[in-house]
Amino acid sequence: DTEVTQTPKHLVMGMTNKKSLKCEQHMGHRAMYWYKQKAKKPPELMFVYSYEKLSINESVPSRFSPECPNSSLLNLHLHALQPEDSALYLCASSRDLSGGNEQFFGPGTRLTVL
Amino acid sequence: AQSVTQLGSHVSVSEGALVLLRCNYSSSVPPYLFWYVQYPNQGLQLLLKYTTGATLVKGINGFEAEFKKSETSFHLTKPSAHMSDAAEYFCAVSDQGFQKLVFGTGTRLLVSP
Question: What is the average pLDDT across A16-22?
Answer without folding.
Answer: 95
